[in-house]
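Subject line: Sequence and fold of a protein, written as structure tokens
Area: Proteins and the way their chains fold up in space.
Start of record: The labelled sequence and token lines come straight after this line.
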Amino acid sequence: MRLRHKPWAKEYMEAQEHIFIPNPDQLKGKWAEEFGNDHPLFIEVGSGKGQFILGMAKQYPDVNFIAIELFESVAVSIVQKLVDTPMPNVRVLTVDAKQLVEYFEAGEVDRVYLNFSDPWPKTRHAKRRLTYKTFLATYEAVLPKGGEIHFKTDNRGLFEYSLQSMSQYGMFFTEISLDLHADEPEDNVRTEYEERFSALGQPIYRMEAVFRPKN
């Protein structure tokens, strides 16, 4: 997908102080204070235009959500939607997932969502995949013991790779679906890509993976 540059995005987002966090490192260990409660904190890495995380925030008002999107020209769509329909349990960050430990204390995040991540199909690009072992180590560092990753994709190759990568890392799986929409759970919140690929007849793969507690 070609990224459309929006030079006004940064200034617009920074004006929405109640939604966009320009300096998240200053809130490391203080996210409960930012939200004003001690509700669970779920993050989505690669939120796109926000359909999934905003749907989740509406469905679960007693959970705090953080949308993480690297590109300002994409993240601004989430901020605009939150300006039109305020949700006090959502914040937006434009940061690199490689640096999550700079923004969250150990155990501060309760769950990580990865939805329709870039598959980086070439072998030489494996380290860029969001389920590569270095990314898994980063998620583990900010999650509590036994923390969870929930993952969805239309890409069978990425799904198979992720199952192998997570298994080799020592994680185990509590749910695996090779065709999520064949018997879609009532509480499933679809992403923009999920709706698009499902409409084309492509199966949606999903799993829930758990880090094994370490002594």
